[in-house]
Each structure stands twice: as structure tokens, then as C-alpha cells.
Amino acid sequence: MTVYRIRLKEQLDQRWSAWLGGLMVMHEANGETVLTGEVVDQAALYGLLSKVRDLHLTLISISPLEADVPSPQEGK
Questions:
Q1: Is residue 26 included in any domain, yes or no?
Q2: Average pLDDT, stretch 62-70?
Q3: Which domain holds residue 58?
Q4: Residue 73 above 80 pLDDT?
Q5: Statement: residue 69 has pLDDT above 80
Q6: Burial (CB count within 10 angstroms: exposed 0-12, middle 13-18, buried 19+), residue 23
Q7: 33 C-beta neighbours (distance < 10 Å), count
Q8: Exposed (0-12), middle (13-18) or buried (19+): which is 22, by Cβ within 10 Å?
Q9: Whole-prediction pTM value?
Q10: In a domain, 36, yes or no
Q11: Phi and psi dihedrals of 4, rounded to 5?
């Protein structure tokens, strides 16, 4: 899994966290929203970005915060 930071131009209410896969929703002083959390794979990331698009939010940036961590089953 990889932890991502997704920066949005608009303010997004905390209530959207569950719908966005449990990502942490933080508000910046400049009015932007930062979503942070683990995304299991590329398909889940694309699904998350589709939700951002469906809400008509402006994506500023998306950044991985740490390297992929292998699941316990991958280590076998």
C-alpha cells in the first residue's frame, strides 16, 4: 500500500471522508483541502480520482508519501 496526499482547490467537508475510502480530510488556511491516507493499489487510486472528478473538484496535486509496503501475503 502507498500513502497519498491529494490536494484539492475547494474546501471539502469532513463528512466525505467515509465516501472517499476513509482518507483524512484537512483544511488549509488558503481554502484548499488535503486528503491523506493509504490507497491499496492503482485501481483504488483511479477510483478515488474518479470520485474527485464526480464531485467537480479541482485537483491541484497528488503525491505518494512513502514507498509501497508489501502485504504479508506478498512476503511469502
A1: yes
A2: 75
A3: 2-64
A4: no
A5: no
A6: buried
A7: 20
A8: exposed
A9: 0.82
A10: yes
A11: -120, 150
Is residue 76 included in any domain, yes or no?
A: no
Query: pLDDT by residue (tens digit) across 5-62?
Result: 999 999 999 999 999 999 999 999 999 999 999 999 999 999 999 999 999 999 999 9
The CATH number of residue 11's host domain is: 3.30.70
Annotate 14-62 with DSSP letters as a single string.
Answer: GGGTTTTTT-EEEE-TTS-EEEEEEE-SHHHHHHHHHHHHHTTPPEEEE
How many CB atoms within 10 Å of residue 48? Answer: 19
Distance CA 27, CA 60 (A): 14
pLDDT at 1: 86
> Domain tally for the chain?
1
Rounded CA-CA distance 49/71 in Å is 23
Beta bridge partners of 43: none
